[in-house]
Every structure is written in C-alpha cells, then in structure tokens.
Amino acid sequence: MREKIVFIGGGNMASAIIDGLLGQGRALEDFLVVEPYAPTREALAARGLACVELPGPGLGDAALCVLATKPQVLREACAQVRRHLPAEAVVVSIAAGVELAALSDWLGGHARIVRAMPNTPAKVGLGMTGLYATPACGPRERALADALFAAVGERIWTASEAMIDAVTAVTGSGPGYVFHFMAALEQGAVELGFAPAEARRLAVSAFRGAAALAAAEDAALSELQDRVTSKGGTTHAALSHMREAGVAEAIARAVHCARRRARELAAG
Hints:
Elements: E1 5-8, H1 12-23, E2 31-34, H2 38-46, E3 50-52, E4 64-67, H3 74-81, E5 90-93, H4 100-106, E6 113-117, E7 127-133, H5 139-150, E8 153-157, H6 162-172, H7 174-191, H8 196-216, H9 221-227, H10 234-245, H11 247-267
Parallel strand pairs: 1-2, 1-4, 2-3, 4-5, 5-6, 7-8
Antiparallel strand pairs: 6-7
Helix pairs in contact: 6-11, 7-8
C-alpha cells in the first residue's frame, strides 16, 4: 500500500508537487487536498482529486501532511489539522519564515516535522528545494519528504534550520533575481531595435542555454565566464561596464537582504 499524502492548501506549489508525483506514477487516489477556497477546490476535483473544504477524519491515515497554505493563515490551519493528525505522520511545511518550534507548538507538540523551501521552477520540474528535519525524523521520514520534492527537481538538506533562511535567499527568491536580469536584457534588446517578442525570446534563450551549459560542466562559474570573454571583445566591454557599476556586489548584497528579511519574518 502506498503512502497517503494530504495537502493543506491546493495552490500553485501543491499542484506542482501533485503533478510531479502523478508523472512518476502515483495515483489520484493517493492524495487528499484540503482547500477552503471553492473555485480552487472545484478545479482540483475536476481533475479527479479528492478534495474537502476543512480538515477532518480523512487525515487519520495520512503518511505525509503537507502544509501549503499562506504563512499568515498557517497557525489557524494547524489548529484545525492537529485534531485529526496521526502521531506517526510526517508534516512538511513549505511556509516561509515559520520555524519548526512554532509548527510543533501549533500542532500540539507533533514531533515529526520537515521544513521545506521550494522555488517556483518546481512548476516545470526544475525546482530546487532546501530541507531540514526535526531530530524525531529518521531515515524513513526524511526519505518520504525527499521523495515529494524529487518529483519537482533537486533537493539540498541543510545542516541547520537557520540555513533554510539562506536557501530562501538564494534559490527561494533566486528566480526573482533571474527574471530581473532577464527583463533588463530584454529591455536592452528592445533598445537595439528588436520587437518585444523577439527581445523576450533572445533573453530567455540566453539564460536557458547558459544555465544548461553550467549544469553540464563542473567548472567554476567564473571560469565559464572567462571562456566566453575575449579581452577587448564585446562581452569584455559589457562585463567591464557591469564591474564598474558594481552589479555583482549589488546582487550579493541583495541575497543578504533577502536572508535578513527571512529572519525578520521568522521572528514575527
């Protein structure tokens, strides 16, 4: 018998994980989605997923309970879940800034909890998820949580819960940084005379190709940069301007700003 997975919240990330697991051969019957928002619930039900408005007895045989609500309503959701959650279930939270101690408290002392920080490329199977588990989670519990996110991309288990904030700053927020750079490249292409659709295509292609090349190589990213930069050439001119403008330093500082904000959210 395969493990039953309950999702508390049926939004974009929950849907991405479900789609990934279905693509790996899981059955619709393996899932239960608790979703209070009627249009979302109806859309999920139309796909053949079992959906309910509120947590109830259906959680009683859950092996995994994925907390996929917005952080601001998570405490209320936990209060509803705790009455039906089996002690042996593994709870996985994807809520940013909510620490394990708070989750355990809100769940009535539940011990087997994993914090996860996925990112939006999970929607296309190219996500990166940071994970950290409580000491009560052994190899089996960690494997169950890991399998969830293996369906939507890569995973990294952190050595401390504090490093989840660092994952948030680098890969959780990372797609936003990349889109920012892509939009600037797109704007530059428009200014050079390309139509907007062509400019977008050029910018996306540059990032897609460079990312695929970096993933296929073991070389340092700085070395890959050097390989495409001829002294006195066009790339050299552009990168020299970026260095003078402090672009790399600004990006690094932005990552620190994101981690600081993650810590502020965790502190309430």
